[in-house]
Amino acid sequence: MPAGRRRIAADMRSGARLALLTCALAAGTAFAQDTLPSPAPTAAAVAQDRTGNLSRAEKRCNAALRRVERHREKLAETQRAIEAHRKTAGSCAGRRACDQASHREKTLTARERREARQLDQLEAEAEKLCAVAATPAGPR
């Protein structure tokens, strides 16, 4: 099939999929409106509503804390990769395999050092932002 026909056929298929999805969603929402009562607000929804009441400093603090947590997870994953590599690197078969294992270990330890340094910086930044958020705002 020529490229032009393939593109047209693909466009037609995607259009048909979109129409099918739209019909399914419309039928699903109509069914849900007729039969299901509205759910009670969950804790996540209540927390979502409260985010509108947070000050700019509190939002920045929360974002910084989430960033710190993501980097902690990233560092833990790198440390798990180093441990797994050390278990397998001891049994390298040939010179080339041992060279590759050595190079891999060097890159992983360099990554671990870099991520630890970034984590320290992010923790210091989060500490500053949260200290600012903790101080009560004076009258304007």
Radius of gyration: 27 Å
The low-confidence runs, each spanning 5 or more residues with pLDDT under 50, are: 43-47
Fraction of helical residues: over 70%
Order of helices and strands: HHHH
Give the structural class: mainly alpha
List descriptors.
single chain; 140 residues; mainly alpha; 4 helices; 0% strand
Describe this structure in words.
With 140 residues, the protein is mainly α. It has a domain at 79-133. The chain contains 4 helices and no strands. Helix 3 runs antiparallel to helix 4 (95-134). Mean pLDDT is 75; it is low at 43-47.
What secondary-structure arrangement, pairings included, does this model have?
Layout lengths: L2 H33 L7 H8 L5 H34 L5 H40 L6
Q: How would you sum up this structure in a few lines?
A:
By secondary structure, this protein is mainly α. The chain has a domain at 79-133.
